[in-house]
Amino acid sequence: MLIDEIINFCDADYDSIECNCDDCSNATICGHDCKECLDDIHYHRNNLRSDYSCRKLLDYYVCRYSYKYCSEIRYALQEIDHDRYRDFSILSLGCGGAADLMAFDEVCSEKINKYYGIDINEYWDTIHEQIKCVSGYKVNFSTNVDVLSYLRTNNIMNYNVIIIEYLISFFYKEIGEMGISQFFDDIIESIVSNKRYDTPMLIIINDVDSCYTGRDTVDMLIDKLNNLEYNFTYSKKRFSPSSYYSDSEQYDTNENFYVIDYDFQQKYCVAKTCNSAQLIIEVE
Hints:
Layout: H1 2-16, H2 27-30, H3 34-43, H4 55-77, E1 88-93, H5 99-108, E2 112-118, H6 125-134, E3 139-142, H7 147-153, E4 161-165, H8 168-174, H9 176-190, E5 201-208, H10 219-227, E6 232-238, E7 249-250, H11 262-268, E8 276-283
Parallel strand pairs: 1-2, 1-4, 2-3, 4-5, 6-7
Antiparallel strand pairs: 5-8, 6-8
Helix pairs in contact: 1-4, 1-6, 3-4, 4-5, 7-9, 8-9, 9-10
């Protein structure tokens, strides 16, 4: 499966390349430990590193988070009737290591028509090239592309799936609630308004289950689609037993779908438990 191919590649690449920490402001504190760097980015423990500008760090990231992120999207895909879709033509905004493509590969590989992933970070290029080589699908990526600018300058056609995975929480910090509101406007104008007529359009937003990271801003997308009188259905899902995510339903389990080698878990401090909040929309 694609997830195994890419994680094995990143594990080998991580072991084979040298640390690139000479000009890193976090190097003296993290001790060349990628876990410490990632934790600094995510939890601001030292406030010395704020981005993923390191190939070795991204190898570690893929090994640490892909099982979790892929599993979360797999849960979302179980919520839809696949028979309603002739194919899946996927646009991934802020695609990272393409854990969403890994999920489609596991659940409905026979229906994948094409996948286009966009990300601002050009350090993903090596991993993206490997995905293109081994996936067997029509896959393309663009890096060094700002998602917001891309939406504002393009009419995007022929896609019937939009994946937004762990991007809202980043935008909430960078552009705030008003910026996210404009982001949703741009999605509707640039993508949804150009939807194919032979299939519903599936939108999956998967992100941190916390009101402090923009979780509740997703309701704006529902309101905007309603105001424009689109015909759509939606569900809000969560893994946590806490019901702070309004009108959401809890999944029966938060376990990921994979058996992970113990030594690998220890090496990468693998994130094993699903704990996101999701909005799943189908536009007719």
